[in-house]
């Protein structure tokens, strides 16, 4: 019993320590936005904290006419990227979805990518 | 009634002669003023590739206008005309004054907070936070 319990602990520990090695160095860079951490293990890694791009830029209004900005928040097929991918805060995501949907209506953005 | 602002975007067929587009804009302007509204600014974005095909067309000539009106009749009339006009393949009207109001409110809020901020951290930790606070203030100015 006493031997059994300590044994798994170091194993977990080794997993744990190997995990952060990957994501951590990417700390300062803000580029790696979508699909950041590829693998999600059983244990929680020290993941790079994603920050809302709009909050960083202090955006008070998301313009649906700026299709180039909105385009970076949709998938290739035209889906709106979820917050967990982009790190956008709740408020900005709310504005963003409305803006994207408006842009879709006037053919600035696709509803679904054509093949 | 209070004044409202609308974004009006419409797309005309790319093969429409420039003169016809101008004429269409002129009639819209006239219709708006007749109903007591106004086209505040008109921008011709020009030929753009559309994100999907509309009426089997891949490109369209985009025209943007900011409509100022105090009652819905203006927008109603403009939309009716756009619907009837043959070269127009798509249009969209979006009410924007409320969002602009919100934007201005947030901006004011931000400025007030920025003005207040330098005072707060000084008693807590004198040297380091002051240096940290100054760059954003400079960036805003």
Question: Can you give a write-up of this model?
Answer:
The complex is a heterodimer of chains A (115) and B (141). Chain A is mainly alpha-helical. Chain A folds into 2 domains: 37 residues, no CATH class; 66 residues, Irregular (30s Ribosomal Protein S18), CATH 4.10.640. Chain A contains 5 helices and no strands. The longest helix of chain A is centred in the last third of the chain and has 16 residues. The N and C termini of chain A lie far apart (61 Å). Chain B is an alpha+beta fold and 141 residues long. Chain B is globular, with a radius of gyration of 23 Å. The C terminus of chain B is likely disordered. At the A-B interface, helix 5 of A face strand 1, strand 2, strand 4 and helix 3 of B.
Give a brief rundown of this model:
The complex is a heterodimer of chains A (115) and B (141). In chain A, 37% of the residues lie in helices and 0% in strands.
Largest sheet of chain B: 4 strands, antiparallel
| Binned strand content of chain A | under 5%
- Average pLDDT value of chain B? 82
| Proportion of residues in helical segments of chain A | 25-40%
Outline type of chain A: flat
What percentage of the residues of chain B does DSSP assign to strands (E)? 25-35%
Q: Identify the biggest protein-protein contact and residues per side.
A: A-B, 16 and 21 residues
CA-CA gap between termini of chain A: 61 Å
Overall SS class of chain B: alpha+beta
- Total count of strands of chain A: 0
The H-level CATH homologous superfamily of the largest domain in chain A, spelled out, is Ribosomal protein S18
Rg of chain B is: 23 Å
What is the count of structural domains of chain B?
A: 2
Assembly state (oligomeric): heterodimer
Blueprint (SSEs and pairs):
The complex is a heterodimer of chains A (115) and B (141).
Chain A lengths: L7 H14 L31 H4 L10 H5 L11 H4 L3 H16 L10
Chain B lengths: L3 E9 L5 H17 L3 E17 L2 E13 L3 H12 L3 E8 L1 H20 L4 H4 L2 H14 L1
Antiparallel strand pairs in B: 1-3, 1-4, 2-3
Helix pairs in contact in B: 1-2
């Amino acid at each position: 019993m006493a031997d059994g319990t300590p044994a798994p602990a170091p194993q977990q520990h080794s997993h744990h320590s190997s995990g952060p090695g990957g994501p951590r160095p990417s700390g300062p860079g803000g580029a790696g936005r979508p699909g950041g951490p590829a693998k999600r293990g059983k244990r929680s890694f020290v993941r790079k904290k994603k920050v809302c791009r709009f909050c960083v830029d202090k955006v008070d209004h998301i313009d649906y006419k700026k299709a180039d900005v909105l385009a970076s928040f949709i998938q290739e097929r035209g889906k709106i990227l979820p917050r967990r991918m982009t790190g956008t805060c709740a408020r900005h995501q709310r504005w963003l979805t409305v803006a994207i949907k408006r842009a879709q209506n006037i053919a600035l953005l696709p509803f679904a990518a054509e093949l | 009634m209070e004044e409202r602002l609308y974004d009006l975007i419409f797309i005309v067929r790319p093969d429409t002669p420039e003169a016809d587009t101008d004429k269409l804009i002129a009639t819209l302007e006239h219709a708006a003023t007749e109903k007591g509204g106004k086209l505040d600014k008109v921008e011709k974005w020009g030929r753009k590739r559309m994100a999907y095909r509309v009426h089997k067309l891949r490109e369209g000539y985009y025209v943007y206008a900011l409509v100022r009106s105090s009652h819905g009749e203006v927008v109603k009339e403009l939309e009716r005309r756009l619907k009837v006009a043959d070269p127009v393949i798509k249009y969209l009207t979006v009410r924007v004054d409320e969002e602009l109001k919100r934007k201005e409110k947030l901006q004011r809020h931000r400025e007030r907070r920025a003005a207040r901020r330098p005072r707060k951290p000084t008693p807590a930790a004198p040297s380091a936070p002051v240096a940290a606070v100054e760059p954003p203030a400079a960036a805003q100015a």
